[in-house]
Model the fold of this input.
Amino acid sequence: MTMKRYSILQRYKSRGNTTWYGRISCNGIIRYVSLGVTRKADAQEWLNRQNALKFLPESMQEEKKDVKLSDAVNHFLDFVSSSHGTVSLTFKAYATKMKNLTAWGESHGVLTLRELTREKASRFALSINSEYSSKTAREILRVSKQFCKWCSDTYELDGWSPFLAVKASKIEKRRKDFWTVEQIERILDAAPTPRFRLFWSLMAFAGLRQAEACSFGPCSLTEDGKLHVVGKGNKEAFLPVSERLRKEIERYGELHEGMFDEPQFKYSRSNAVIRDAVSSSGIASSGESTNHRFRHSFASNLIRAGVNIKAVQQLMRHEKVQITLDTYSHLLQDDLTEAANALK
Done:
């Protein structure tokens, strides 16, 4: 019988994490398990229990290997928070998506991990696909699969993979609408305040994401005239500042830190301000009027202006050029048609 060694410790203390972890050593391989507790006494109880179980026959140990679904979800979210923090958008997204699995489990009698069989997982997927859009359903199932993989490794549930054969419904690719430069100018003129005008300009003329624009301040501009941005995954980038954006910054005047760190610039409430500006500007705009549409319009207008797709990828900070190609392929197809018609 393979003997395992157990111990307890705290990890990521420098990040303010107070959770205790179990350390499992077996045949030179070390794994860490989040115990979901902050008191050492509770962690010690886990250690005592594991040390007692390891002397039982393997057949008896297998019977013990089942965990309440709600407890496993809490431990998994604790694991996510140890890397991203409880206030991050990533953690909130994971927590929201995991609520779907726990709520469905409670209503269908799936209270432990072992009760989540492949048949039950398929029924859960059917429920999600019928209730949500294709994109949202895929995200929920992706997180659910990640959760099950984490549980299988953490709780040593060998062979437990309920979502192995589950597939999400395909996402229908829709042609994304964008604003032309002339339309963006009219929207900026309809901005309710100079701050909103500059906020939208950062997304429309530099391709910043909404959260990145919220972090803009005087320290974002470097001495050599670049725009310092901290994007997804805390990845830093130094972007060129276009003449058009520079004019908007100069037009605004004195910058100060935290100038966009207010609720009116965050989340969905700022989209309502955009819709009002689009309406008052007289633009018959199809599609959604959101902050992200400014960023999408930035890339679309670059492509329509003939900018190299690799340069667009770097300005948009997409991890791979394939992401840029897939997102804006309809614009490239239009360019191919124009190129073919140029041969007369």
Remarks:
- DSSP finds 15 helices and five strands in the chain.
- Residues 1-64 form one domain.
- The chain has a mean pLDDT of 85.
- The first helix runs from residue 40 to 53.
